[in-house]
C-alpha cells in the first residue's frame, strides 16, 4: 500500500482557463451509499481546484458527471436512463462534456457498453481515479483524445488531502477505510471497490480535528466494514482504538459510524461505545437474513444465535442502545421457512429502522450462479410482510420514547411550515416547532407524541443557536 498526497494541478487549471472564457460549471450527481456521496464531494473539490464552478441543474452545466452505484440492477438502470436522457442536450450543446464515474465504471462490461452504445459519453473513470480527474480532463480538453475511457482498475494507493466541497456545514462523512474483503456472495462491492485499505490513524485524526475546528457537529466514520479497520497498517490499531483516539479531541460534537459487520463486531467495540459519551448509542448492524442456511450461503460468517448474542451483550452494556439493519428478501432459493426465521429475528431484536432490499442478481458474484427459485410474486409478498412486521415493531419502540427529554441535532425543515427536524442520539427523528436559525445546532426537545415512526416534540430549555 502506498500513501500519496494530492497535488494541485496548475497546468490543468491553466488549460481550463484558456478553453473557457468564464469559469465552466460542473453538475455532479452521486448515487448509492455514503461512501459514494463522500467521493462526490471530493470530485467537486477537485473540479473547483482547477477552476470549475458548481451548479445544481444539468442544463446549466459544461460538465455533467454521474457518480454511480452498482449494488442493485435498479441503480444501474436509473443511471443508463439518465445518461440516455442527456443525448438531446448534447446535440443542442455539443461542447458539453458528459462523464460517468464511481462503482459502475469499475466494471468492464459497463465500460464496454458505454464504448459501444453511448458515443456521446466523453469521460469514464473508476473509484480510484478521483485524483487523476484533472489529467483526464486535460486530455479531453486539449483534444488529445476524443474520448477518455479508463479501463476498470484498482490502485493499491490511498491519496490523502484530496480537496473537498462538503454538502453540509454541520454533518460530515469521514472515510476511514476503502474497499471490502468480505465477498458476501450476493454483493458486487468487493469487485467494484477492490480490496480493503485502511487510512493511517494520523491522517484520519487530522481530518477529524479539522472538522471539529470548522464546527461540524456530527461526524460519521465510513467503511464497508469499519470493524476490520487497521488491517494491513504498520501501526497496531483496531476500530475500537481508533474511536477512543478520536474521542480525545475536545469539542461539542458526536460520532456515528457505518457499517459494522456482525462477524467482526467485538465486545471491545461495544464496551467502547458504552464508555464514550461522544459515540452515538445506535449501531447499524446489518443481519441480511435470520436463517442460518441462507447466512451460510451468503458467506456472512455468523449464525442468527451469534448475532443475537451480540445484540444481547450490547443491550446489557449500553443502556438505551438502538439497532438498525439491512435485510435482503428473496435470496436465491430462500424458502418460506427461511423467511419466517428472518421475521422471527427482527421481532427478537426489535430494530428501530430496517433497510429492506429485494435480492438483485449481480453478474460476477457467486450467488449469480445459483438458480433463482423464488418467484417475483413471492418476493414482493415477503417484502410486504416484512415491512408490515417492521412497521408494527418500530411504532411500538418509537411510542415508548414519548415523555423523554433529549438533546437533538437540528437537521432541517419539517414537513409543516414553521417546524424543524432533529435527530436523537439513537438515530430517531423528531419534529418540533422552531426557528430556522437552530438548523445545525443542538437543541433540547421534550418528546410529546409520535406520528407513525416520527416523534413529535417541543423545544425546552435554552438551546444555543450557533
Ligand atoms: N458493507 C455494508 C453495505 C453494503 S451495500 C454491509 O455489509 O452491510 C448495502 C446493502 O445493500 C447491503 O447490506 C445489502 O443488504 C444490500 N445489497 C447488497 N447487494 C445486494 C444485492 N445483490 N441485492 C439486494 N441487496 C443487496
Ligand atoms: Fe458487500 Fe458484504 Fe462487503 Fe458489505 S461486507 S460491502 S455486503 S461484500
Ligand atoms: Fe453502490 Fe458502490 Fe456504495 S456499489 S452502495 S455506491 S460502494
Describe the structure.
There is one protein chain. This protein folds into four domains: 156 residues, Rossmann fold; 89 residues, Transcription Regulator spoIIAA (2-Layer Sandwich); 120 residues, 2-Layer Sandwich (Transcription Regulator spoIIAA), CATH 3.30.750; 55 residues, OB fold (Dihydrolipoamide Acetyltransferase, E2P) (Beta Barrel), CATH 2.40.50.140. The model has no long low-confidence stretch (mean pLDDT 95). Helix 1 packs parallel to helix 6. The chain has 466 residues and is α/β, with parallel strands linked by helices. 33% of the residues lie in helices and 23% in strands. Bound molecules: S-adenosyl-L-homocysteine (SAH), iron/sulfur cluster and FE3-S4 cluster. The site of FE3-S4 cluster has 12 residues, from helix 2 and helix 7.
Radius of gyration, in Å, reads 23 Å
Give the total of beta strands.
21
- The helix fraction, in percent, is 25-40%
CATH superfamily of the largest domain, by name, is: Methylthiotransferase, N-terminal domain
